[in-house]
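In the previous chapter we treated chains in isolation. Here, by contrast, the input contains two separate entities that must be folded as one system, with a combined length of 607 residues.
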Amino acid sequence: MTILDIQAYRLRLPDTARPVLDGVDLTVRAGETVALVGESGSGKSLTSRSVLGLLPDGATTGGTVRVNGEDVLTMTPERLRDLRTGTAAMVFQDPRAAINPLRRLGDFLTESVRLNGRLAAAAAAERAAEMLDAVGLPAAVLDRYPGQVSGGMLQRVMIAAALMGDPALILADEPTTALDVTTQAEVVALLGDLQERFGTGLLFVTHDLGLAAAISDRVSVMYAGRIVETGPAEDLFDRPRHPYTAALLASTPRLDAPQGRLAAIEGRPPGLREELTGCPFAPRCPIATELCTEQAPALLSIEAEPGRRTACHHSDRTGEGSADA
Amino acid sequence: MPDLNQEDAVDPKGAPAVRRTVLEVVGLHRAFGGVRAVDDVSFTLAEGGSLGIVGESGSGKTTTARIVVGLERADAGQVLVHRRDRTEHRRGRAHRLARAREVQLVFQDPYLSLDPRTTVGAALRETLRLHFPDADHPRRIAELLDQVGLGEREADALPRQLSGGQRQRVAIARALAVEPAVLVLDEAVAALDVSVQAQILNLLADIRARTGIGYLFITHDLGVVRCVTDDVVVMRHGRIVESGPTTEVLAHPQHDYTRLLLDSVPRPGWDPRSIAAARRAL
């Protein structure tokens, strides 16, 4: 069952020359983990926030963002509140910034289900204790303040809070970026366990291609507001077919790659004030041709590679290039 | 007949056989209340070398770096640069400037370490005036900017008009302006996007090769450590648990904690559950 279904989603902001999100397609099925990978400004966080109807001021949108079949972009404020406290939940990057430091963690956990009237105070507290147990924390945490627990524990509290409304979809926006590497492993293991137990769909937003490949079923790579490549995590990691994905992999200092200079991508992503005529990556692309600067490539299926799509005029050559290297 | 002995004396790579020590840290201790943040930490950095300090939050790596720079005092122990003790903290302008020329620091977020109202060129000029009042400043500023891959346009820019990568280049240029013997880089590439991070890491490698400056590289990222350091020390709870040549330590970790750190790096086929279990067992 498809829980999240984003089709041809466009988002435009005032005073910009190009759409911030330009024709984004993305689906997440029940029990599936999909990673959305990109660098800052690629639009990955905007995409995940859009799923909860959290749009920047003055934004105009096109296309559809459906959660359980219902378009978020046309929802009434009441329906949006139900969505945010029930069907879909967000785990943010920095728990210290997302959780009110002056309220007890018990209040934070029960706030959403009490607000939407789903549970009374006693039942909500009971459910909070249950969810804390699910993330491996004792019920005593309910009485603590955010300042009294570690960053890793606080991120678990955030995950527990996300589970309170029994969501069908969890949106995790860089949920482990602020954590130590060993703590990251714990949080990721926890998310995986919970997903298996509750059959939740997970959209995992990250800048870390290695992490994305390690944890997800499918990966979508974003660049300048567009999905440039999508496919099963391992295939995409082993045989990238978009030059940007290949370049991202080559510029990551990895433990299993040859030592020495990194293959840095020169230049930087296009700004929002620049109009884009062709492929957004063309100015930085080692294999770009005239066609690339004139015509934007569509996200097309790759022959003999099921489930994979790439938006590159020369995707056949990207495959060869990475095999040589 | 050729003199065999003489031929043997020439290093095939052309590198000097023995490098002098530029930085020596001996028996460093620092406690905050009852917590031993830095507990008997010693290491040496060779001239033109690069030493990584790896650890998680609470490992004491940042406190160690701050003591080396002089932002934090040690309860005990010595920090020697070219055999001169920095921990004595002798007063006076001349001593302070001399200390600054020994060690410079590049922070994680250059946005917080650059004056928002000062242009890049003016920031460099200020540093040069302080340390080298008689030098040809415009020429040196152009040289420094060129060294970090920036141009005249960036010289007139304010920090907020630059990207994160450009700002980090400015921070590096400002540190280099002083011509320090050691550059301490505290998570200096952690906040950058991967593609920009690669540019900065390459830049740092080039600068080291060209100037012979020594790096003390504080990071949590083992991929970065592998990329830019010759030697590494692994810290946990204020103590060094393992140290040695980077390739050796990463290929054959001896300590359980080093192994845990290595296993924690996500990759295809990664098993976070076993890592979580190993972490709890340690």
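The first strand of chain A starts at residue 2 and ends at 12. Chain A has one domain: 1-94+170-179+198-325. Compare these points with the single-chain example from earlier in the chapter.
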